[in-house]
Amino acid sequence: MMRVTTSKAQGEPAPELESRKFHRLVLALIPIFVIATTFIPAPPQTPRHEVRDVIHGVEIVDPYRWLEDQNSPQTRAWIEAQNEYTQMILSQLEGRQEVERLVSEFARLETYTVPLHRQDRYFFMKRKANDELNLICMRLGFDGDDVILIDPHPFSPDHSKNVNLMQVSDDGSLLAYGIREGGEDEVVLKIFDVDNRKDLPDAFPKGRYSSIVFRSDASGFYY
Q1: What is the per-residue pLDDT across 178-213, written as a single tens digit (0 to 9) for each?
Q2: Per DSSP, what are the bridge partners of residue 180?
Q3: How many CB atoms lie within 10 A of CB 98?
Q4: Beta partners for 121?
């Protein structure tokens, strides 16, 4: 069975120093909690537009369905108002920069997902200590070097697109992954040719793919 470990970033401080950093973070949060318990103006109102559906004889009332249209003028105006309100509250908090700095230090760790083992290949997602996004990687053999198969950083200038490892064929030759933009639930499904290091030309609609299963001979897959 493969061991799952988390590599330490270079220059990681000793446990005692990590403990002191955590205590500084707690102290930095105290002013935020104090202000949060003081008077805060009410947030912008969210209009209710009731939509009623009868499903299997049961009436379902959905007053906020209009918010599902992310690009409508009404939804964009609501998002803008909520953002302005949030920034108005946060701008009053002292010590935000110190909290941000300390949280950033804690986040700068190299992380791995649990690998998928196929033949002599291990597939996993990895985020380097100073990277914003996860990489899809492969390792040949347990003690082999990590090989980057898919790096999402060039996909968008603002790094708003990320990838998710979904499944690998039994022989390790094909890899299914999704590309997600921003906080969308839907992904664009891609099939990656591991040996030739390129996407196959197959096109799939954007959607919520809950499960991918390759056929045993890697001639296709079910979703």
Answers
A1: 999 987 889 999 999 999 999 999 989 899 998 899
A2: 162
A3: 15
A4: 118, 140
Name residue, tokens 């912008």: 44
Neighbour tally for 113: CB within 10 Å: 16
Q: Is 0.90 topped by the overall pTM?
A: no
pLDDT (tens digit, 9 = 90+) per residue, 53-83? 999 999 999 999 999 998 899 999 999 999 9
Q: Among candidates 205, 161, 165, which has minimal Cα distance to 180?
A: 161
Nearest alpha-carbon partner for 147 in 134, 158, 132, 136? 136
Separation between Cα atoms, residue 166 and residue 124, nearest integer Å: 10
Rounded to an integer, what distance in angstroms lies between the CA atom of residue 47 and that of residue 82? 13
C-beta of residue 21 within 8 angstroms of C-beta of residue 13: yes
Mean model confidence pLDDT for the chain: 85
CB 209 within 8 Å of CB 223:
yes
Q: How many CB atoms lie within 10 A of CB 138?
A: 22
Distances in Å between the alpha carbon of 20 and those of 13, 14, 138? 11, 10, 36
Handedness of CA 123, 124, 128, 129 (dihedral sign): negative
Tokens of 32: 């935020």
Range list of H helices, the chain? 15-36, 73-90, 96-107
Amino acid at 20: R
